[in-house]
Amino acid sequence: MCKIIFFIVCFSVFNICRAQNKEVTKLVDQFIDTLEAHSFMRSRVDFDKMRQETKLNVRNINSTDSLMPTFKKIVAGLNDHHSSVHRVKGTTDELALIKKYASTTYAQLGMPGPNFQHRLIEDKYAYINVPGVDLEHRMYIDTLQKQLLELDGKQPKAWIIDLTENEGGSCAPMIIPFHALIDTTQTFCYFDGTLDKDGKEVLVDKFQIPQNGLYIDNDVEAKYFKFDTVQVLPLVNNKIPVIILISGITGSSGEIAACHFLGQKNVTVIGTKSAGLTSGNELYYVDKGYSINLMTALLHNRKGKSYDVGERINPDITITYPENIQSRKEQHQYILKNKSIFINKALEFLTSGGI
Fold it and tell me: What range(s) does the Tail specific protease domain occupy (predicted)?
């Protein structure tokens, strides 16, 4: 009798494990399907090999809760420098995930808010720090607009826009407030890997500058983060020199914000090379709370250049690190402790030009 009970228990456990492993295999397929359909690297990756190797590696995994290390390894294998995988339990689709992020504040997560700073330097240069943004997008836009209007009222002789500590996030809130400082109707766009019949790059998602200053975004994310409609107030001092400060920290949307100004005659970029995340991401929900922030296209600036995978933005005027600063971590620490070096270099440039 005991042997029969033992057999039944073992058989039941085996069936449960097999069913769980099917769930694991199904989720792996969904994950790789998403990459194969949308990744910029889709023409450079052998997804059949990736799928085969991954299924072999997860053959002893019986819970989808244990797949994060596997998914991180898969994403790292894309070698696109800019994709990442996340998991937010309790979300069932992309909309639920967006609502979750949109309703969360920095305070709720116990995180400090963005490092907003603005001031008039030497009574004539308008300095504004533009930090990264992950949450509370409308607050971010409103804060930058208020700071810009305050500085504009002091009749500055130049703008110094500091992106040196901007690691990215969402690019639209970083860009929209600076509407009045842009001298064209279209700044940057993306190359998603598609070529036309003549072999030329097909450019998509061209960022348009509305002449009336009213930004309308029909994207679901913009709706829930409350920047689907933003009326930008004009700045009077919009023809003066603009200095963009960048560093090795400046990445992703921070680099897009810098690219927004590139090629404009009154703009000078000062700093170190940027982080090299000059590409666009899209959020894709997979299942079981897993989502991918997937690199889908390369950044293309108004001068006609498409950045390569991992390519950095080069400043017009370069700041070099001390010889003893080598690693990326050391560079980041140096930048955060020595922001005055970047600002002083901007002041030196402006003064030398008689501004």
Answer: 83-320
